[in-house]
Design a protein that fits this description.
The chain contains two helices and five strands, in the order E-H-E-E-H-E-E. The protein is of the alpha+beta class.
């Protein structure tokens, strides 16, 4: 996922990753497998977090964490279906809860 906030690694952890890790620890729902900070010559422009989830329905809770942490609606979540070698994405502001 890509979150267009000018925050560093520590704040990324405080606002998003720690809560996602706690969620995964509660029900063994997945793992954080990567993350980083990106920017340009003017400074930090956003952060990325890469997740591996076991069931897509856990994304509802992850979306709640993103919103509670102040992720803007234009944040994007990418889904990779390795069996089909396909990538799709959805904006946080367009997220519809999975049943």
């Amino acid at each position: 996922m890509s979150i267009p906030l000018a925050i560093g690694p520590e704040e990324r952890g405080d606002r998003f990753e720690d809560a996602i890790c706690d969620l995964f620890d509660e029900d063994d729902g997945g793992d954080i497998v990567g993350g980083g900070t990106y920017g340009n010559e003017d400074g930090i422009t956003g952060v990325g977090i890469q997740l591996e989830v076991k069931e897509l329905v856990i994304m509802n809770s992850i979306i709640d964490i993103l919103r509670a942490g102040g992720a803007p609606p234009e944040s994007t979540i990418e889904f990779v279906d390795e069996s089909k070698d396909e990538v799709s994405s959805v904006r946080l502001g367009d997220w519809v809860d999975l049943a």
